[in-house]
Amino acid sequence: MKVWLLLGLLLVHEALEDVTGQHLPKNKRPKEPGENRIKPANKKVKPKIPKIKDRLSVDSTPKTPSIMMQMMDKGRFQKPAATLSLTAGQTLELRCKGNKIGWSYPAYLDTFKDTRLSVKQHERYGQLTLVNSTAADTGEFSCWGQLCTGYVCRRDEAKTGSTYIFFTEKGEIFVPSPSYFDVVYLNPDRQAVVPCRVTVLSARVTLHREFPAKEIPANGTDIVYDVKRGFVYLQPHSDHQGVVYCKAEAGGKSQISVKYQLLYAEVPRGPPSTTISASANKVKGGDDVSVLCTVLGEPDVEVEFRWIYPGQKDERPVTIQDTWRLIHRGRGHTTRISQSVLTVEDLETIDAGDYICTAQNPRGQTTVATTVEFS
């Protein structure tokens, strides 16, 4: 019995020595309690939501809130969308918050000084009201706050509002034109617009040449269609000239627009290109003399003339006549020639001297002179 007991103790002692003599691998460390738990592989991880500062930094451009409101039925107000469709005959009332408000609306309403339009400034808001609206009123309506110092005011870009309104009217797909034929000038250095605007936003509009008869595609490269402007020629050239018209289809009906004559005008933009000449620079007493001032310019740019002449201080009677016309200079190029003629009859000694002509257009002025003297 004692032998078996001693043998058992020896076996236990050897087993303990084997355990204490083992070494852990160099790249492993003893596990902490609970560290042997296996994490499930299909655990869902919630996406990190950026803080408010992070989200703002993505689009740092602040959006200016509109100051415009539209009056609805029963005295309700709401901010108008970028585009609205209203039925002709409806009353339109827009209000813009501010004690000094400027307004812009279709030029048609100003051209004819339409009494249907009323613009008022109240203590806290500006008000625009249009009654008995028609398809011709279709266009952009906008307002802005004004920052004034004394009588000088400037636009406050932080306070603006706008909406483009389509006034739909039975039988009118196109916005009515005051004429049956219009001229569009094509300049090589700026866009040209054939103003085929519609009263129905969903209308399909195409551009056509009268002769040879064919549709002109709006391919997005040379010509694009803008529902607020019409067909836009991005880079006009002489091949575009001719007579064109537009065709619109909406609600199963179609309509043809007025015709537009496209004229190419290759004239540089800037102050007037001016020349001056006299019928005679050497004269005798009792002669008549005419001094001609001529400007070649863009077809749609008006020119004003002013004269300074020797007998002006003495109130010498003279005749001044201004005229203009369009001329074609080959390859279909169209130019406006503006002329002013100053005529002096029965010349006297006080009429001798410098005749000075100043021609002015919206882009500047040019002064030229010629001398008339007695021989």
TrEMBL record:
The gene is PDGFRL. Transmembrane segments: none annotated. Residues 65-143, 272-375 form the Ig-like domain. Residues 1-21 form the signal peptide. One of its GO terms (molecular function) is platelet-derived growth factor receptor activity. Keywords: Disulfide bond, Glycoprotein, Immunoglobulin domain, Repeat, Secreted, Signal. This is Platelet-derived growth factor receptor-like protein. It holds the Pfam family VEGFR-1-like_Ig-like. It comes from Camelus ferus. It comes from the Eukaryota. InterPro entries: Ig-like_dom, Ig-like_dom_sf, Ig-like_fold, Ig_sub, PDGFRL. Residues 22-46 are annotated as: Disordered. PROSITE patterns: IG_LIKE.
